[in-house]
Amino acid sequence: MRTLHLLSLLSIGLALPTTAQAQFSAMGGGSAIPFTGEGGGGNWDTGLPISPAISVVDVQVEVLEIDSVVIDGFQHTWAGDVQAVLFDPTGVGYNLILRPGYQNPDGANFGTPGNFVDGTYTIVENGGASLPTLSDGADIQPGTYNQSSSTGAVSWTSGNHNINNTPLGSITGPSGFWELRVYDWGVGDNGSFTGWTLNGNGGASGENTGSAYCFGDGNGTACPCGGNGSPGEGCLTTSGTGALLTGTGNAEIGDETFVLTVTGGPPNKPGIFFQGTSATNGGLGNTVGDGILCAGPTLRFGVNILDGAGSTNQASFGASTSVGMDMKYQYWFRDTANTCGGGFNFSNAWEVTWE
């Protein structure tokens, strides 16, 4: 089988000249491509393929521009089947990769039969190589590539199916859940990816909120006993939701206003916030108890009791870190009657670089 690995879309750190910004990197889980079935089911220009791979990242700042998109562990046979699209929280999409070589006059109508090879693939607005537009069967080797809205013979009509041809640096949007969707236009070839990262600039001057990763929503590591939460959350709890961890304020030594907040946990249960310097299992985490442990090694911050609405927060981290450190955070809490009866669970994880 051919393999498609869209692994790393590296940040190039673009900056707007008139607006102070904070860089963000938001990480999401992986998926099979297609999510279920054998792929296909779409008609070019009139209907998108059924069951695309979908993974979300939680961006906590207003997006002012996108630098790059990183897709990790992506495998797929027959590169000409693949269309990768970034969707903002309002449901507007932006082409990243468009079926290399599809309907090229010099080849078959199925796009290039070559493979995306295991490695790191970087999609940027410009400065990279052009994705192939010939149906010549050559593998697409790891490297940095420019985003594409043309197959060489066919150009996507911007706005078709609410998917636009907007350059990455011109993409803006609200905070919230941004999605990567990977469509498989052919039957008989498929693949998967293990995770992805959205890199960009956003927010107001002084903001440094970080980004969420390691979710218990079924897009990455599966929760124990099938207890997947909703997009962006941790594994399911007795409250009927997964616990959602977010960070706000300045993670800035000497001017610290950074606060971690948990919502959606089981009411009136004890728990602790903890931090680590590494993302467990490459950011996918490992199942422990009734949840997914995402950060380590750990430093604990003491007991925080979830209130009657299942919420709590934690502030004052500066003494436990130093300038330039990339810290990972998570909330670990008691949940005595959960899906697997393990007695405890975790929120999603949160990552921030201290300034």
Give a short overview.
With 355 residues, the chain is an all-beta fold. Helices cover 0% and strands 38% of the residues.
Describe the protein:
It is a single chain. This protein has no helices and 23 strands. With 355 residues, it is mostly beta strands. It has two domains: 181 residues, Jelly Rolls; 143 residues, Sandwich (Immunoglobulin-like). β5 and β6 form a beta hairpin. The radius of gyration is 21 Å and the shape is globular. The N terminus is likely disordered.
Features:
38% strand, Jelly Rolls, 355 residues, 6-stranded mixed sheet, disordered N terminus, Immunoglobulin-like
CATH domain class name of the largest domain: Mainly Beta
The total count of helices amounts to 0
Number of strands: 23
Specify the CATH homologous superfamily of the largest domain. Answer: Galactose-binding domain-like
The backbone outline, from C-alpha atoms, is globular
Question: What is the residue-averaged pLDDT?
Answer: 85
The helix-and-strand class reads mainly beta
- Characterize the main sheet: 6 strands, mixed
Approximate strand percentage: 35-45%
The CATH topology annotation of the largest domain reads as Jelly Rolls
- N-to-C series of helices and strands: EEEEEEEEEEEEEEEEEEEEEEE
At CATH level 2, the architecture of the largest domain is Sandwich
Uncertain stretches of 5 or more adjacent residues: 1-20
Q: In which range does the helix fraction lie?
A: under 10%
- Overall number of structural domains: 2
Radius of gyration: 21 Å
The CA-CA distance between the termini, in Å, is: 45 Å
